[in-house]
């Protein structure tokens, strides 16, 4: 199925060249500025959430554990692609070594597979918290949480390892110019001299199964949550629950829709959809979620928001005291 063996060492390029976003070269400066701003927000927001959760012993509910892991995955996802994108858009430095390209490919796609699993785990957490509040601690025990996290990680690694192996062992004896802003596996596989169909088919089937099953369970969880919410007598409680669910669904839509649309466009609509639109969609689901997740899942969570405020009080007070001392003792 994979075709005859090739002399891989003779046909492996030393370097690939990333185009960026074909057709949008005139907007590269604005893209670099926007990406830098979003990356800074993603790093600061996710690092703050991880720090507060790890330092505060009161934040030991399963939801905060999943939030901490999600923040770490978001940092890995954004850091795998954004620095190189900014380098391309700002300085035109588009070269990437063969090993770095496939390392980037592995971490990007493994992180996205973990992200969708964590979104499912968090949806199940909310379902248990709202629909079965009396059994919350007995159902989501630390052992269950650890098992879910390990399962999500194993699933991502199991999916990505064969895909990376298949693409990295293709012969690349022609063009080394990747029409993308990062080493997206379909864009790289299309440069191979051999038939890339096995890896593309594996990617399509695998991502469809993973995302399809996760979205189905997430939708079922939120349907049950909404049924429970509309059964509440308090309108204020209904509004709070709907507001939280609505923001979560919005983030999920920003994550899932661009990713799946870009996958299916690469199969069905390459000629009808401009290349820059395809690349922008693929970039969108790697940059927006890490930027928005700390705001939607973190700052909108009351307990975490209060801890962040108290976490900032001490440094702020020290700065104020230092300023006052300097003002008092300055002649």
Automatic annotation (TrEMBL):
Topology of the protein relative to the lipid bilayer: Multi-pass membrane protein
Keywords assigned: Cell membrane, G-protein coupled receptor, Membrane, Olfaction, Receptor, Sensory transduction, Transducer, Transmembrane, Transmembrane helix
GO cellular component terms, semicolon-separated: plasma membrane
Predominant localisation class: membrane
Domain G-protein coupled receptors family 1 profile: 45-297
Gene3D superfamilies for the chain: Rhodopsin 7-helix transmembrane proteins (1.20.1070.10)
Transmembrane segments: 28-52, 64-82, 102-124, 144-165, 204-230, 242-267, 279-299
Subcellular location, record wording: Cell membrane; Membrane
Signal peptide: none
Role played: Odorant receptor.
PANTHER family the UniProt entry points to: OLFACTORY RECEPTOR 52I1-RELATED, OLFACTORY RECEPTOR 56B1-RELATED
Protein name, as recorded: Olfactory receptor
């Amino acid at each position: 199925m994979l075709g005859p063996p090739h002399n891989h060492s003779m046909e492996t390029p030393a370097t690939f060249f990333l185009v960026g976003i074909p057709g949008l070269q005139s907007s590269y400066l604005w893209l670099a500025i926007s990406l830098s701003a979003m990356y800074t927000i993603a790093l600061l927001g996710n690092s703050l959430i991880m720090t507060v959760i790890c330092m505060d012993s009161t934040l030991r509910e399963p939801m905060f554990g999943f939030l901490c892991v999600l923040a770490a995955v978001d940092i890995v996802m954004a850091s795998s692609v954004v620095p190189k994108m900014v380098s391309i858009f700002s300085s035109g430095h588009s070269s990437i070594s063969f090993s770095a390209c496939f390392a980037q490919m592995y971490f990007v796609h493994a992180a996205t597979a973990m992200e969708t699993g964590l979104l499912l785990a968090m949806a199940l957490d909310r379902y248990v918290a709202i629909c079965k509040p009396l059994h919350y601690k007995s159902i989501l025990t630390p052992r269950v949480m650890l098992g879910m996290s390990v399962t999500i990680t194993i699933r991502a690694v199991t999916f990505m390892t064969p895909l990376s192996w298949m693409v990295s062992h293709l012969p690349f004896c022609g063009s080394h110019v990747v029409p993308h802003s990062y080493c997206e596996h379909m864009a790289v596989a299309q440069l191979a001299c051999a038939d890339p169909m096995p890896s593309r088919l594996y990617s399509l089937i695998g991502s469809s199964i993973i995302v399809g099953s996760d979205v189905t369970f997430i939708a079922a969880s939120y349907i049950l949550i909404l049924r429970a919410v509309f059964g509440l007598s308090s309108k204020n409680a209904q509004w709070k629950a709907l507001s939280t669910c609505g923001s979560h669904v919005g983030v999920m839509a920003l994550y899932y829709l661009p990713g799946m649309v870009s996958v299916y466009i690469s199969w069905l609509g390459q000629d009808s959809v401009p290349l820059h639109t395809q690349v922008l969609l693929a970039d969108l689901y790697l940059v927006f979620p890490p930027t928005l997740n700390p705001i939607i899942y973190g700052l909108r969570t009351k307990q975490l928001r209060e801890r962040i405020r108290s976490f900032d009080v001490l440094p702020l007070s020290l700065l104020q005291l230092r300023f006052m001392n300097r003002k008092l003792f300055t002649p």
